[in-house]
Design brief:
3% of the residues lie in helices and 47% in strands. The chain is an all-beta fold. It has one domain: Jelly Rolls (Sandwich), CATH 2.60.120. The longest helix is centred in the first third of the chain and has 4 residues. It is globular and about 45 Å long.
Length: 159
């Protein structure tokens, strides 16, 4: 199984996949921090709350997901660290696991995935976590596309 080393997230390294949402240092309102996108006229914004049990590194990655017609933003409400694992499309349209990136995200940082970005489901580190998320959905199978990785595509994530 191939090993991927998780690294701290930053704006530049995450930019191909979406936007890093840092809490502003000072008071005030900071508009348009994420590139929110909805590609379906019948999809509505779904502001959801999610809980994630703690996981420990190393992690074995066996499946990925994406939202072809929607951005998806996560912001921790109660969390320590969490890990984000992302990759672009392969030539066959599935996830390009050879180009998998893994990022450690801090307790006060959110992320916004661009539409169609393959990512691993939400994974908390260091303890259970709670998140708010925003995605556009219409309740059909087109909301989320799942991909089960073949044994030769699976990855192990370490820090």
């Amino acid at each position: 199984m191939k090993i991927v080393t998780a690294r701290p997230i930053d704006n530049d390294s995450f930019a191909p996949y979406g936007q890093l949402l840092d809490v502003p240092a000072g008071p005030g309102r900071y508009d348009f921090q994420a590139e929110l996108f909805n590609g379906r006229a019948d999809a509505r914004p779904n502001l959801l709350l999610a809980s994630a049990e703690a996981s420990a590194l190393p992690l074995k990655i066996e499946r990925m997901e994406r939202h072809p017609q929607s951005s998806q933003a996560f912001f921790p409400l109660e969390a320590a660290r969490y890990i984000v694992m992302v990759c672009p499309d392969a030539a066959d349209g599935g996830p390009d696991m050879a180009r998998l990136d893994a990022f450690i995200v801090g307790a006060t940082q959110g992320i916004n995935y661009n539409p169609g970005i393959w990512h691993h489901p939400l994974t908390a580190l260091d303890g259970a976590a709670k998140f708010a998320a925003l995605v556009w959905e219409n309740g059909t199978e087109a909301d989320t596309e799942w991909y089960s990785l073949a044994p030769d595509q699976r990855r192990r994530i370490e820090s």
